[in-house]
Design goal:
Layout: H1 3-12, H2 20-36, H3 38-52, E1 57-63, E2 69-75, H4 99-107, H5 114-120, E3 124-126, E4 152-154, H6 156-160, H7 174-193, H8 199-213
Parallel strand pairs: 3-4
Antiparallel strand pairs: 1-2
Keywords: Exopolysaccharide synthesis, Transferase
Family: Belongs to the bacterial sugar transferase family.
GO molecular function: phosphotransferase activity, for other substituted phosphate groups
C-alpha cells in the first residue's frame, strides 16, 4: 500500500479514541505482564537463537488507529532465510515454520513482544487485531470504521478466530478467501463490539483471551 492510500484512510476515519482510563489499564497490565513474563520471554529468545540464530523478533508494519502505520513486534516463527515477500498469511502446516515457531503459534506466545507496542501507546490490551498493509485495501464499504479504534492484543476477533489458519478450505486461494470471507467477518465482529464497549466488557475479553490461549475457544461467527 502506498503513501497516498494510507493518507486516504486517515481522511476517511475520524480521530481515533481510546480514553484515559483504558490507557491507564493498558499501562498497568502491560507493565505487570512484562515483568512477570520476562523470564519466559528470555527463554523463548534463547530457544530461537539456538534453533536458528538471529533475529529472534519478527517486525512488520501494521495499520494502527486512524490508519497510522506502526512497527509491530512478534517472536519469529519462520526460518531466518524466509523472504519477507512470501504469503501474507500463516497456514496450517506452513513449511516456513520452525519447531519452536510451531509451538509459539499454537500457544500464541509469539505475540508477547507486543507488550512493548502497548507500552509505547501504539496498541492496547483490548482492541481490533492490527491488519498488515497487504490487506489495507480491504478497509472500505464502512469497514474502515474499525480504524477508529486502537488495535489490541486481545478482543472478540482474537478469541473467536483463535485458530484462524484452520478455517481456510484447501481448494481455494487463501488470499482471496481471507479478503472475501474472513476479513469482512472479523471487521463486522469488531464493529459490533467496539462502538458499545465498556471497561467491564474489556476486562471480560481479557479473561476470555486467557481462556482461549489455554484451549477454550467458542465457534467463530462464520460458516466455513
Amino acid at each position: 500500500m502506498n503513501a497516498s492510500d494510507l493518507s486516504l484512510h486517515r481522511r476517511l476515519v475520524s480521530s481515533p479514541t481510546h480514553g484515559f482510563v483504558r490507557r491507564s489499564i493498558d499501562l498497568a497490565v502491560a507493565g505487570a505482564a512484562s515483568v512477570i513474563l520476562a523470564p519466559l520471554m528470555l527463554l523463548i529468545a534463547v530457544a530461537l537463537l539456538l534453533e536458528g540464530g538471529r533475529s529472534v523478533l519478527f517486525v512488520q508494519t501494521r495499520m494502527g488507529a486512524g490508519g497510522q502505520p506502526f512497527r509491530m513486534y512478534k517472536f519469529r516463527k519462520f526460518r531466518v532465510d524466509c523472504s519477507s515477500q512470501g504469503l501474507a498469511l500463516t497456514m496450517v502446516g506452513d513449511s516456513r515454520m520452525t519447531t519452536v515457531g510451531r509451538f509459539l503459534a499454537a500457544t500464541k506466545l509469539d505475540e508477547l513482544p507486543q507488550l512493548w507496542n502497548v507500552l509505547k501507546g501504539e496498541m492496547a490490551i483490548v482492541g481490533p487485531r492490527p491488519e498488515s498493509l497487504a490487506f489495507a485495501d480491504c478497509f472500505h464499504g464502512g469497514l474502515e470504521a474499525v480504524l477508529r479504534y486502537k488495535p489490541g492484543l486481545l478482543g472478540p476477533t482474537q478469541v473467536l478466530f483463535r485458530h484462524e489458519a484452520r478455517f481456510f478450505p484447501q481448494s481455494v486461494d487463501p488470499i482471496l478467501f481471507y479478503r472475501e470471507v474472513i476479513f469482512p467477518a472479523k471487521a463486522r465482529l469488531d464493529l459490533s463490539y467496539y462502538p458499545q464497549r465498556t471497561i467491564g466488557s474489556d476486562i471480560m475479553w481479557m479473561a476470555r483471551g486467557f481462556l482461549a490461549v489455554v484451549g477454550w475457544v467458542p465457534s467463530p461467527p462464520i460458516d466455513v
